[in-house]
Amino acid sequence: MEGLLEEIVAKYNYWIYVVLMMIGFYAMIAKRNLVKKLIGMNIFQTAIILFFVSTGVKRDAGLPIVDKDLALAGAIDVATVVNPLPHVLMLTAIVVGVSVTGIALAVIMRVYREYGTLEEDEILEKIGR
Amino acid sequence: MKLLALAATLLTGALLLYGTADFPAWGDPQSPASTHVSAGYIETAVQETHTPNLVAAVLGDYRAYDTMFELVVIYCAGIGVVGVLRRVRE
After folding, report:
1. Nearest to A96 by CA among A27, A41, A31
2. Nearest CA of chain A to the CA of B54: how many Å?
3. A79 touches chain B (CB under 8 A)
4. What is the distance in angstroms between the Cα of B90 and the nearest Cα belonging to chain A?
5. Cα(A83)–Cα(A52) distance, rounded to whole angstroms?
6. I need a surface site. Which of A4, A34, A80, B67 has the fewest CB within 10 A?
7. Residues of chain A found within 8 Å of residue B81, distances taken between Cβ atoms
8. In this predicted complex, what is the ipTM?
9. Going by C-beta distance under 8 Å and a sequence separation of 6 or more, which residues neighbour residue B68?
10. pTM of this prediction?
11. Euclidean distance between CA atoms B11 and B88, whole angstroms
């Protein structure tokens, strides 16, 4: 029990993101409303993005904006700057996520216009299944 | 049905938490993500690109094509939205 508690304290970021991911995953597979499903997908995505950003963190390190003169002299201590690569790659992921969300919202609007409802079972009833 | 969904969610979460046992602790400067290529970027990015903001240096200098095609992704999404929402006159 003591070991588990220490494990949680040392890695609490992963625990938070796993819980956040579980919320989003449950919303995606259990909710019947299409908008709620989409919100679940966004929560899921946020959990993954936060997870990757958190892998770049170094304790007591500063922003990845460095002193130019110091850097040109080659005197940057790597441990004092957080890892910039996860941040950059997650910017890309955010862009893709926004695109997917936009398309999904458009499709949801179209579905509502066509069937007059966003509830999954009512739509399935209307298309005769 | 909801019970099945809850069971699947809890199972996935438990597996992920089991997987975190091998992960480095929070804020560890010696974690694998921070020791291999990223140290090289931090040390040489300013000499190679003259951009003090390392995120902007990687995004705009090292990965400029990636950033450009991100714009293509947004453009395609916009076209898709217009195509889905357009009302066709009968």
Report:
1. A41
2. 6
3. yes
4. 16
5. 11
6. A4
7. 102-103, 105-106
8. 0.84
9. none
10. 0.85
11. 46
Question: Tokens standing for A8?
Answer: 């949680």
- The contacts found for B12-19 with CB under 8 angstroms, 24 or more apart, are B12/A21, B12/A22, B12/A25, B13/A18, B13/A19, B13/A21, B13/A22, B16/A18, B16/A21, B17/A14, B17/A15, B17/A18
Residues in chain B: 90
CA dihedral in degrees (A21, A22, A27, A31; nearest 10)?
A: 160
**CB contact, 8 Å: A94 with chain B?**
no
Alpha-carbon distance of A26 to A119, in angstroms, equals: 17
Show the tokens assigned to A39. Answer: 């919100």
Return the sign of the alpha-carbon dihedral for residues B16, B22, B27, B30: negative
- A76 touches A66 (CB < 8 A): yes
**pLDDT tens digits, one per residue of B24-33:** 888 788 888 8
